Each structure stands twice: as structure tokens, then as C-alpha cells.
Amino acid sequence: MLKKVNIALSSVVLLVATGIGTQAQAADGAELYKTKTCWSCHGKDAKTPIMPIYPKLAGQNADYAFNQMKDIKSGARSNGQTAAMKGVMGLVNEEEMRAIADWLSTQE
Predict the structure, then answer these.
(1) What pTM does this model have?
(2) How far is CA 11 from CA 27, 30, 69, in A?
(3) What are the extents of the domains in the chain?
(4) How far apart, in Å, do the first and last CA atoms of the chain sit?
(5) What are the angstrom distances between the C-alpha of 101 and each of 7, 10, 12?
(6) Domain 24-106 classified CATH 1.10.760.10?
(7) pLDDT tens-digit profile of 2-56?
């Protein structure tokens, strides 16, 4: 049984090391962007927000986007633009925020 676990673990490490795991993460970020309702305001393509005051998220630096989401969720960022986001941020955890931010950074 231990040998099977070690083989499975080795396979996961190999997949991630070769970049196959990153494709799954990117797909997860795209799916989370939809299921967590980000697209409702920022547009299905993350480039066409429903209001001009909402930011275009496609191509955004992943760390910047992740930190903005974290700050909005924690209340560290609480300007006028964050009121609408505050409720939505309750739907995502940090791992999901990271996946969304990473995916957004790959969009052009």
C-alpha cells in the first residue's frame, strides 16, 4: 500500500514539475472566475466590465490581483470601489483567489 502511495505522489510531483499541473490550475481559475460570479461585473472575457469604473482584469499582474482580493476581503482596502466586491469576496478562499489571479494574468 505504501508503495502505491509513493508512486502516486511521484506522479503528481512529475506532473507539476513538467507544467501539466499548471494547465489544470489555469482551467480551475477560469472556472472559478465564472462560478464565483467575477464575470458578472468584470465581463466574461475579463476585459469588458459592465461599468467603465470597474477595472479590466485581463492581463493583470497575478500578485497584484491576489493582494487586492485579499485586502478587499479583509477590509484593508475599503475605498468606494470595494463596497460591491466585499460581499462577493466572502465566496472565495485564498487558494481560489490565487487560482483566479493566476488565470487572469494569462489573459490578454
Answers:
(1) 0.75
(2) 20, 25, 33
(3) 24-106
(4) 46
(5) 31, 28, 23
(6) yes
(7) 554 444 433 333 333 334 444 555 569 999 999 999 999 999 999 999 999 999 9
